[in-house]
Amino acid sequence: MPHVLIIEDEEDILALVHYNFIRNGYRADLTTSGEDGLAMAQQLKPDLIILDLML
What we know:
Layout: E1 3-7, H1 11-23, E2 27-31, H2 34-44, E3 48-51
């Protein structure tokens, strides 16, 4: 199962993006912090990172 890391500071957008990935068969981890996202990316090695550049 493909693994996605979603980094988004707006909770509503985070929930919507998460829902759509899960619904389509992806495993998704979430965070609202850029620092946490960097640590999670290094630890989890996701296949794809969705990042809000304007955090």
